[in-house]
Amino acid sequence: MIIRLPDGSEKEYEKGVKVSKVTSDISMGLLRASVGAVVNGEILGNEDVINEDCDFKVVKFEDKEGKQIFWHTASHLMAYAIQELFPGTKFAIGPAIETGFYYDLDSEHKFVEEDFKAIEDKMKELAKKDLAVERIEISRDEAIKMFEEKDQSYKIELINDLPEDEKITIYKMGDFVDLCKGPHLTSTKSIKSVKLLSIAGAYWRGDSDNKMLQRIYGIAFEKQKQLDEYIERREEAEKRDHRKIGKELDLFTIHEEGPGFPFFHPKGMILRNNLLNWWRGVLEENGYGEIQTPIILNEELWHRSGHWDHYKENMYFTKIDDADYAVKPMNCPGSVLVYSSEPHSYRDLPLRLAEFGLVHRHELSGALHGLFRVRAFTQDDAHVYCLFSQVKDEVFKMIELADYLYSTFGFKYSIELSTRPDDYMGDLESWELAENSLKEALEEKGIPYVINEGDGAFYGPKIDFHLEDAIGRTWQCGTIQLDFQMPENFDLTYINENGEKERPVMLHRALLGSVERFMGILIEHFAGKFPLWLAPVQISIIPVSDKFNDFAKDLKDKFTKEGFRVELDSRAEKVGKKIRDAQLKKINYMLVIGEQEVESGKLSVRKRSGEEVKDVVFEDFVKDLKEEVENKTITE
Fold it and tell me: Which of 123, 165, 263, 435 has the greatest CB tally within 10 Å of its CB?
């Protein structure tokens, strides 16, 4: 059995070798820094065994997989601490998530944040004991008997729902035993700092007909310094919360009458329209034609597209004239109908059709979160119909377009290639061709990427763009998807150079992604301090007293005529309060108008940063402002 090691070398092992053996062979130094391994794309624990030729990668805490292993172990450690402090607690599930871990609990004790310190102290006490984390294979009957004795009904339900041939494993940590696939750290000693973050309610298995459990969220690190940095970032993130800033700047609200359906206010619409009008112009320059398709289409269409079989649980339905219809969750079937409405020649391809399409998707109420997770949103979709020989060039163009978009806002980004999911449509041969086509495009372009196994769309693999914002958080945003399935399902054709019908390839592309979500990301990225071209209010004119109001109004009219969005603050308030209010509104420029400005005709300009410039000539200021807008300058 051959194992390919991280440095590219290969080594022969007997079948059944433990992951820990291979890890220690690579480097003792690396072993001490490692938390687990990835074997052929699957995360394994140190006690797992390898039975076939494979690629082997040691993972550390800094790696995505390493965090999963570390935080999964920390979730068990938290459950152990709760078992010690609150006997009788029943444990449901406790996974690692992208931002730490949680555990769902059923307890007579009503957990409150005041309990956190005691749980954290107990976790640290247990971790210091350097408890071994043992993986044990067990029969179904043994597992059920064990959890019956422990009065852990949720574990029994999970076991009973497993397939008959499923291998059942438990993990033991001191006196705590949990049903779990793993993997985990080999011991608790590397968990040095922990913090419990919040409590929420969560229905068992996400079903509102089931019991409401208590969910405790937490985070853990190898060093206290890492936790301190995390807390600092979290506090900064709370200041930037788009829901808070959206309310302060009067951009949007969400009401009980429409949970998950955002209401955009006039200032929010200025932000939205500036963004979309600019992006429309960019798309037009890049050869896209814009279409609009209906929000409601009949049920038969969604059977043909594959959404009925693969996405039905996320859709809304209605009846029209006693016929069954669906509210669209995606724009692609509508675009397909536009393509098929007339014959096409190979000379017409690539055909690029863009749509800012409103879609509706069912989300559980507990998952809704401001603009980040909504039930109605607009996608900046585009569908490109092309020859197979054109796929690579079209993917290149899309990547360049994405780079232009994200760099305009100062985002760094990384790329993932998401491959065939378990619930897929079509045949394996076309999937392999599609995945290889995207890989070749990325590699030919020299773009680094990582594989995200099994996270493709049900109709095709995809390239995903992960943005890094101003405080280092990442957001999955844009996507490019290669689809052989939908052209087949809808019998799309074009006439080739020999006069014969052929099947086009379909590329799906959304780079803003959800417009609402992208706006939320922008609000937090800029902390509401938008670049001048996006800002709902660009200039605040602040007269020192009423006698300067006429001059201030004339000045406002002059700026408005030049195309700027101006607010005149003529309230009978002290000038200091007016300036502070404008700063709270995060307005880019404040012009204070007093005796000197009226007599000289020159302006006193206070920037949002606090910098002040006096004796500014109106024409020069307008010229500078227009350059700032034209260049999409990011000043802060």
Answer: 123
